[in-house]
Fold:
Amino acid sequence: MTAERDGTVVATVRLWHVEANGKPALLLGPLAVSPELQGEGLGRAMMREVIWRAACRGHGAVLLVGDATYYERFGFSGYLTRDLAMPGPVERERFLGLELRDGALSGASGVLVATGRPDAAAPDAEPARKAA
Ligand SMILES: CC(C)(COP(=O)(O)OP(=O)(O)OC[C@H]1O[C@@H](n2cnc3c(N)ncnc32)[C@H](O)[C@@H]1OP(=O)(O)O)[C@@H](O)C(=O)NCCC(=O)NCCS
Structure:
C-alpha cells in the first residue's frame, strides 16, 4: 500500500504472506515515510489502514520486526512471537506480533516461511469477509 502527494509516493507499507508450521500470518515491512513528512501521523495512518484491510480480508495475525516502542501503540507484542523465529537472526525484542482474531497465533511455533501467495483473502477467510 502506498500514499501519494502530488503524484509522488510519500509513504509505503508492505504485507507478505508467511506461515509457521502451517499457521498463516502476514509479515509487515517495510513501513517507510518520507523524511520531510515524518512525525505528522502518516506512519500511524498507514498502520491503521493496513491492519484494517488485513482484518477485513480475514487474516488472523500480523508479524513484524521493528521498534517495539513504535509498534506497541498498534497492539503489537513480543509475547505472541515467543515461539516463532525468523529465518535469519533478529533481536528478540524487535520480533512482534498482533492477533487480528483471538487465538490466531495460539500454538504457532517454528521458523517463518514465505508462502509466495499473491495478494488475496486469507485461506481460511469466511466468504462474507472475502468481499470486504
Ligand atoms: C518509523 C516511521 C515509519 C514512523 O512514521 P511517522 O509518520 O514518522 O510516524 P507518526 O507520525 O505516525 O508517529 C510519530 C510518533 O512515532 C514515534 N516514532 C517514530 N519513529 C519511531 C521509532 N523508530 N521508534 C519509536 N518511536 C518512533 C515518534 O517519536 C512519534 O511519537 P509521539 O507520537 O509520541 O510524538 C518513519 O519515521 C520512518 O519511515 N522511519 C524510517 C524507516 C523506518 O525506520 N521504518 C521502520 C520502523 S521500525
